[in-house]
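Notes from hallway chat w/ T.B., transcribed later so I don't forget. T.B. wanted the structure written out for a chain they're using in a teaching module, and asked if we could keep both sequence and structure tokens in one place. Agreed to drop them here.
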Amino acid sequence: MKHSRRALNKEKSRRSILKASRKLFSDQGYDETLIEEIADLAEVSKATVYNYFPDKDSLLIAIVEEVEEGIEDYLEDELAAETNAVDKIRRVLTELVLASLQYPSLSRRIVFLNSSRTSTLHGTLNEIKSLLKQLIATAQSDSCLSEEISSGEILDLLMGMHFIALFQWTGEDIASAQDQKDKLDRLFDAIMQQYLSPITCDEQ
């Protein structure tokens, strides 16, 4: 029992540190945030932060992994219940974009670092991208999407929507999650319309 309680306390501390890091990185910037500030907000000691995360980069990596795990956990049941292959793609992209827009400035930094081969965050979005590419390939094999363009190229277009949302969506017109989802749906439909198979999933 003591071991179990200790494990729960450790996990609680870790999550508190990540939550504090995400807020501070978003509110005041990654470079400007000090480990001491993270420890204060998480209500743990500075030594405890370093016990879990040796530096700020490791915190950033853990934040990305936590977001990916949250998306994957949410989608596990959602995708199983969804029968339309294209709608499965829509769900994954929607969850990625909405999760990123909760902390836009932090997400922009992650995307930037993810693109740099010398960064410790290079490739951190690979699991989500791999899932999307797999769903695109399945949609093509099910004759839902045209095979005239490769799954990789369609993936590039969809990830481009993620970048547009992060770097261009501002203002009160998309302030709410529902507004963001509605706009994303319109863009997704416009792109998918170009690549839908003449025989769509719903007609099979």
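Follow-up for T.B.: Residues 57-203 form a domain with the Tetracycline Repressor; domain 2 fold (CATH 1.10.357.10). Might be a good example for the class.
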